[in-house]
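Weekly puzzle thread! Below is a chain. First person to post its structure in token form gets bragging rights.
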Amino acid sequence: MRPSPTAPNLLLTGRPGVGKTTVLLHVLERLPVEAAGFYTLERRRRGQREGFDLVTIGGQPVPMATRGAPGPSVGSYGVDIGLIDSVGVPEILRGLDEADLLVIDEIGKMECLSEAFRDAALRALDSPVPVLGVIQLVKGDFADKIKARDDVSLFHVEIPNRDHLPDVLVQKLSRLFPWAASGGGG
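Winning reply:
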């Protein structure tokens, strides 16, 4: 079952570390629909951040960026564009045909180094499958164009609102998935 062609794309934004990915994961836990896509997590060792992992929905983490690694850099992190292209992009494209909901965390500086990722993100946003995602807060040409789209609802995550945002997002998405509201499977 697919939502209408005018399905909204719900994107979270906010400063680093405020809990955007946590909000997204809480929504996924509570919404019984078939999701595809990925999210990112910090990778820590001995209390220090050493990089970021890309985690496909239901998958294992793979290192997307590592402090001091070779490759294009964002801050002190070398980004593995090949991994974004070989793991993240196919997961988004698979979801176009197989999922009720696409998850993209995040449309950020690291991911946007990949042209294939940018193309897949646009295809996802243009598709009838709704997108639940995270987008960088800071200005950037690609991110700014997405934030300005008529089919994007932007939610600014801050400490005072982050605990109730999953309720708001589940309610909005449940309207697209009648079986989710009744507790049925997708």
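Puzzle host: Confirmed. Bonus trivia for everyone else. The first helix runs from residue 20 to 30.
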